[in-house]
């Protein structure tokens, strides 16, 4: 079972429009209770296309996985129905940064961003 902060490799297909596609790494941002009770996991895909987008969080030399975490491409996946494997664990400080960015995306403008 995956845990919050797991970096996994998974196929994002099928996809539609500008959704992230293909077999790629992603970081699990949902906690274990959510994963177990909902039977879904919330992930953010990782790309090696670095374009200094403000919602991208870079990985550093503490991970074997390279690239940036795309916080704007949050996706819920049923990992029981998809083939994936756990690669490594994201450092806690980067995980906190990702969760902070995703939370701000959702809460901004509703008084919850303070």
UniProtKB/TrEMBL annotation:
Family affiliation: Belongs to the PemK/MazF family.
One GO molecular-function entry: DNA binding
Species this protein is from: Allofournierella massiliensis
Any Pfam family hit: PemK_toxin
GO biological process, any: rRNA catabolic process
Protein name in UniProt: mRNA interferase MazF
Record keywords, A-Z: Toxin-antitoxin system
């Amino acid at each position: 079972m995956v845990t919050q902060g797991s970096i996994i490799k998974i196929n994002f297909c099928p996809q539609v429009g500008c959704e992230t596609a293909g077999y790629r790494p992603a970081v699990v941002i949902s906690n274990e209770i959510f994963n177990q009770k909902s039977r879904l996991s919330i992930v953010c895909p990782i790309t090696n296309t670095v374009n200094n987008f403000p919602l991208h969080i870079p990985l550093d030399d503490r991970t074997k996985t390279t690239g940036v975490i795309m916080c704007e491409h949050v996706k819920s996946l049923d990992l029981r129905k998809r083939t994936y494997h756990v690669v490594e664990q994201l450092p806690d400080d980067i995980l906190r940064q990702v969760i902070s960015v995703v939370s701000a995306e959702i809460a901004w403008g509703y008084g919850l961003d303070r």
